[in-house]
Amino acid sequence: MRAEQQPIVALTAYDYTFAQAVDNAGVDVVLVGDSLGNVIQGHGSTVPVTVEDIVYHCQCVARGLDRALLMADLPFLSYADEATAIDSAGALMKHGGAQMVKLEGTQDQAAIVEALTIAGVPVCAHIGLQPQLVDKLGGFKVQGKDEQSANRIVEDACALEAAGADLLLVECVSAPVAERIRAAVNLPLIGIGAGVNCDGQVLVLQDVLGITQGRVPRFSRNFMPQGQSIPGALSAYAEAVRARTFPDATECFE
Ligand SMILES: Nc1nc(=O)c2c([nH]1)NC[C@@H]1CN(c3ccc(C(=O)N[C@@H](CCC(=O)O)C(=O)O)cc3)CN21
Ligand SMILES: CC(C)C(=O)C(=O)O
Ligand SMILES: [Mg+2]
């Protein structure tokens, strides 16, 4: 799809009925995200989410998909070493039905990605803002704001590609930093809060449907006013990603 300049539409889902709705809207990649810690479980972060939680929601979502690729997040500390990562990925794929796993990382996780790759696990490397590190970072902030940290994220992308990652996802970086990452790799780059010049976009389902209570990340968009109904909002999101009308300038970082 990157080669054909066909934007990749990705969205989270956590249950059977919404998986069907998201699949019917023509979404290409459905993510069982650890954001379920926030939007399903009501935690303040993704830190408490377990492999078992993701497996359960994957099982529910898998039964609702007909066309989309099923990607699942490896939760915090479920890939801290190679053996643990392989066990965790095995659970998501064998019990959950996931077709690809996603892990948050930098070049420091290259050996983990390589071990998963050698074992035959399709991997998406999630770079830039790593929400699982919120207690270390002290908040959800834009990453790569100075030259040195931007260079470091580009290096992360290259190292994770070299380690065998199949897909990259970048969160919360400026549009120019996302463009630098994309230019440095051959893999498709899916963005969230990373500007319009990525190979695809991903958002959290509840944000797209406008039902997230409290503060919503600035880079997300409520498609319910435009779509008028759940199926309408999901189709409007897919269409906006494909037309590159999402994200707009107000939904990006400088
Ligand atoms: N509902 C929901 N949507 C998400 O996108 C999401 C979750 N939950 N939970 C897991 C992570 C956490 N994420 C977040 C949460 C907050 C910001 C945020 O408030 N960012 C600031 C940036 C501030 C700055 O440095 O300028 C923003 O204004 O968007 C970003 C990502 C993304 N993920
Ligand atoms: C927001 C996406 C990228 C994610 O990792 C999640 O939903 O957990
Ligand atoms: Mg996640």
Structure description:
By secondary structure, this protein is of the alpha/beta class. It has one domain (8-251): Alpha-Beta Barrel (TIM Barrel). Helix content is 39%, strand content 15%. The protein is built from 11 helices and 8 strands. Helix 4 (82-95) packs across helix 5 (110-119). It is globular. 3-methyl-2-oxobutanoic acid is lined by residues 12, 31, 33-35, 73, 126, 169, 171, 192, 202, 204. Residues 12, 31, 33-35, 73, 126, 169, 171, 192, 202, 204 line the site of 3-methyl-2-oxobutanoic acid.
In short:
This protein is 39% helix and 15% strand. The chain has 254 residues and is an alpha/beta fold.
**What percent strand?**
5-15%
Count of β-strands = 8
Mean pLDDT: 98
Main beta-sheet annotation: 8 strands, parallel, barrel
Q: How many structural domains in the coordinates?
A: 1
- Shape type: globular
Q: What name does CATH use for the topology?
A: TIM Barrel
How much helicity do the residues have?
25-40%
Distance between the termini: 27 Å
What's the CATH first level?
Alpha Beta
* Strand arrangement, major sheet: 1-2-3-4-5-6-7-8
Kindly report the name of the CATH homologous superfamily.
Phosphoenolpyruvate-binding domains
Throw out a few tags for this protein:
254 residues, alpha/beta, TIM Barrel, eight-stranded parallel barrel, 11 helices, globular, binds 5,10-methenyl-6,7,8-trihydrofolic acid, binds 3-methyl-2-oxobutanoic acid, EC 2.1.2.11, metal-binding
